[in-house]
């Protein structure tokens, strides 16, 4: 197999592995609060929102050390170990205990930081400036198939049910645990790339993550990775992109946890309210996959760069927020187990709710594919620290959003996303214009990004 073929194979395996793991994890996140609501009359006393807040809070802090951990053990083994912890978190729901639930939340936060840092490094190692857009799209589209499969099962398994039984819960989470473990094993198929570092590239991530059996050299690489993360955090480009990244963290919280809970709480949807959570996840996945395919795989045909895609993303999200505001009761995110009988500015419509799910996924893919692409382009030699910073900002904002989701009415959550999304779009434009100027100075074709 040629070198380029091997790199493409690695990207596909990377995407498929993440697809299996996040088929399990995102389905778990989508139904966690609903399942927990049914458990809170037992000895279990936990909150899905609080768990997710812990996960993303720990994830954000762990990103300070994740480049060093990846430097020591390597990206492939880092992803394998992280996948095991994802599986353990999901397995907790088979026989829930409050202490195990929150302990697993802490552990998966650390694992997630390492997993996504290693993913960014693997993506960049197998790409160049001409293929980073394509590879980002392939990875993102494969990853988002995870929203289809898990939620499709939930839709059919829970159709017509207003209460989730112990048997239903165990069946779902045993299946999700096995799926997560399959994705973890697939990481072993990723093939290592030959070291192509040019002489003098002393600060490159390739050197930081290079192979060495020397404990001293590993420690030096770990320290170098940590220093590089701190240095990159205060660059102009990274600070500007952090606003855009913060927005993706807020949106991640909303579509992966809050919106599904809102749908499940609307009593006017009748006996379909619980199964609609799964159907919503499917429509989010369709939007994510469509966006990844169009704006990633077909990026070579665009001669306008990344800005039009991000502009489309924010417009699509603003339409979705407007429709959700009119369609969903204001107290839906914090409704009790009995649900809510309130009505917003229109009678709740299942069709509008599913349209909004699709728009949320499509807009999210616009932002994430372009963020992955521009980070891989700007920081090709420092990919692990750059992607660690990306996940640090995204996850800390997701943690904050999960925390306030316990208390804020729907209108305030939507307003926060509108404001941060507006400014995040502007800051992304600024960085992209700088990237275009740098390409022009090198005599490269702008459409190559």
TrEMBL record:
<feature type="transmembrane region" description="Helical">
    <location>
        <begin position="386"/>
        <end position="404"/>
    </location>
</feature>
<dbReference type="InterPro" id="IPR010291">
    <property type="entry name" value="Ion_channel_UNC-93"/>
</dbReference>
<feature type="transmembrane region" description="Helical">
    <location>
        <begin position="276"/>
        <end position="297"/>
    </location>
</feature>
<feature type="transmembrane region" description="Helical">
    <location>
        <begin position="100"/>
        <end position="118"/>
    </location>
</feature>
<dbReference type="GO" id="GO:0016020">
    <property type="term" value="C:membrane"/>
</dbReference>
<feature type="transmembrane region" description="Helical">
    <location>
        <begin position="7"/>
        <end position="26"/>
    </location>
</feature>
<feature type="transmembrane region" description="Helical">
    <location>
        <begin position="309"/>
        <end position="328"/>
    </location>
</feature>
<keyword id="KW-1133">Transmembrane helix</keyword>
<dbReference type="Pfam" id="PF05978">
    <property type="entry name" value="UNC-93"/>
</dbReference>
<feature type="transmembrane region" description="Helical">
    <location>
        <begin position="238"/>
        <end position="256"/>
    </location>
</feature>
<feature type="transmembrane region" description="Helical">
    <location>
        <begin position="170"/>
        <end position="190"/>
    </location>
</feature>
<comment type="similarity">
    <text>Belongs to the unc-93 family.</text>
</comment>
<protein>
    <recommendedName>
        <fullName>UNC93-like protein MFSD11</fullName>
    </recommendedName>
</protein>
<feature type="transmembrane region" description="Helical">
    <location>
        <begin position="138"/>
        <end position="158"/>
    </location>
</feature>
<feature type="transmembrane region" description="Helical">
    <location>
        <begin position="410"/>
        <end position="431"/>
    </location>
</feature>
<keyword id="KW-0812">Transmembrane</keyword>
<dbReference type="InterPro" id="IPR051617">
    <property type="entry name" value="UNC-93-like_regulator"/>
</dbReference>
<dbReference type="InterPro" id="IPR036259">
    <property type="entry name" value="MFS_trans_sf"/>
</dbReference>
<feature type="transmembrane region" description="Helical">
    <location>
        <begin position="46"/>
        <end position="65"/>
    </location>
</feature>
<keyword id="KW-0325">Glycoprotein</keyword>
<keyword id="KW-0472">Membrane</keyword>
């Amino acid at each position: 197999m040629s070198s380029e073929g091997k790199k493409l194979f690695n990207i596909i395996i990377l995407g498929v592995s993440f697809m299996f793991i996040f088929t399990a994890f995102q389905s778990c996140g989508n139904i966690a609060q609903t399942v927990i609501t049914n458990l809170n009359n037992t000895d279990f006393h936990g909150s899905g929102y609080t768990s997710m807040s812990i996960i993303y809070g720990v994830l954000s802090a762990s990103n300070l050390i994740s480049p060093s951990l990846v430097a020591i053990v390597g990206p492939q083994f880092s992803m394998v170990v992280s996948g095991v912890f994802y599986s353990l978190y999901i397995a907790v729901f088979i026989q829930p205990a409050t202490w195990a639930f929150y302990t697993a939340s802490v552990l998966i936060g650390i694992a997630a930081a390492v997993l996504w840092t290693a993913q960014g490094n693997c993506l960049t190692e197998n790409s160049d400036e001409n293929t980073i857009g394509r590879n980002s799209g392939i990875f993102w589209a494969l990853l988002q198939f995870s929203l289809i499969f898990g939620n499709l099962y939930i839709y059919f398994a829970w159709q017509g049910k207003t209460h989730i039984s112990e048997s239903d819960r165990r069946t779902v989470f045993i299946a999700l645990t096995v799926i997560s473990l399959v994705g973890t094993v697939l990481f072993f198929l990723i093939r290592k790339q030959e070291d192509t570092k040019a002489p003098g590239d002393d600060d490159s991530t390739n050197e930081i993550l290079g192979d060495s059996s020397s404990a001293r050299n590993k420690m030096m690489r770990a320290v170098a990775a940590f220093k590089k993360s701190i240095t990159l955090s205060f660059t102009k480009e990274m600070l500007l992109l952090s606003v855009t990244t913060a927005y993706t963290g807020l949106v991640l919280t909303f579509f992966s946890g809050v919106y599904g809970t809102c749908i499940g709480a609307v009593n006017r949807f009748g006996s379909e309210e619980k199964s609609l959570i799964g159907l919503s996840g499917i429509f989010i996945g369709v939007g994510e996959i469509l966006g990844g395919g169009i704006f990633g795989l077909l990026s070579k045909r665009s001669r306008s760069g990344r800005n039009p895609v991000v502009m489309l993303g924010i417009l699509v999200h603003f339409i979705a927020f407007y429709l959700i505001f009119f369609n969903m009761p204001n107290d839906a995110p914090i409704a009790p187990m009995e649900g809510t009988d309130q009505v917003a500015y229109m009678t709740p419509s299942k069709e509008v709710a599913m349209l909004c799910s699709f728009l949320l996924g499509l807009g999210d893919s616009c932002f994430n594919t372009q963020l992955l692409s521009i980070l891989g382009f700007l920081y090709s030699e420092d990919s692990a620290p750059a992607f660690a910073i990306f996940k640090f900002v995204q996850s800390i904002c997701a943690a904050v959003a999960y925390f306030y989701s316990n208390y804020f009415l729907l209108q305030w959550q939507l307003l926060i996303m509108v404001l941060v999304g507006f400014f995040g779009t502007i800051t992304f434009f600024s960085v992209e214009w700088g990237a275009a100027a740098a390409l022009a100075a090198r005599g490269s074709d702008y459409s190559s990004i």
